[in-house]
Amino acid sequence: MKRIWRELIEGRVDRRQVHGWAATWVETDATISDPMVENSLQHLHGFDLMYSSDASNLVSHGCGERWLVDDDGIADALARWEALCLRYDADPAAFRRAARSEAMRAISAEGNQPGPE
After folding, report:
1. What is the CB neighbour count within 10 angstroms for residue 13?
2. C-alpha pair distances (Å), 19 with each of 84, 104, 112
3. Per-residue buried b or exposed e for 48-87, using 16+ beta carbons within 10 Å of the residue's own CB
4. pLDDT tens digits for range 15-58
5. What's this model's pTM, rounded to 2 decimal places?
6. Are the beta carbons of 51 and 65 closer than 8 angstroms?
7. Which of 30, 42, 104, 116 is deepest in the core (most CB within 10 A)?
8. 113 Cβ partners below 8 Å, 6+ apart?
C-alpha cells in the first residue's frame, strides 16, 4: 500500500492510474480482510476526484477543473493513514472500539444539525 502512495506523491504514477489500480478492489465484491488496507484503497481510489466544471459542489472521477485533494493533501493523508496503522497494529480491538465510538458521535452530531430549508 505504502509503495503506491509514495509513487503517486513522487509523480511516478498519476492519479488516474492509481484510481484504476484501486478500482480492482474498491469497485468489485472483493473481500479485503485488513481494514487498514481497505481504508488505504478507498483513499487511493478517490484521489482522482475533481470538482465539476458545471457546479462547484459536484465531484467526479478524473474529469473537472481542479482536484478535490491537492498534492499536499495526498501526502498529509498518507501521514494520517500511517499513524492510524500504528494505532491499529498496537491494539486492533481498541482501535475498532474508538473508531466506532467516533463514528457514533459524528452521527449523533449530524442528527442535531438543522436540515435543509
Report:
1. 15
2. 22, 29, 35
3. bbbbeeeeeeeeebeebeebebeeeebeebbeebeebbee
4. 999 999 999 999 998 889 999 999 999 999 999 999 987 777 78
5. 0.82
6. yes
7. 42
8. none
Cell of 89: 497494529
d(CA 46, CA 27): 12
Residue 16, amino acid = R
Sheet holding 59-61, edge to edge: 59-61, 49-51, 66-67
Task: Please give the pLDDT value at position 115.
Answer: 55
Rounded Cα gap, residues 27 and 29, in angstroms: 7
Categorize the per-residue pLDDT at 116 as very low, low, confident or very high, splitting at 50, 70 and 90: low
Query: Of how many residues is the chain composed?
Result: 117
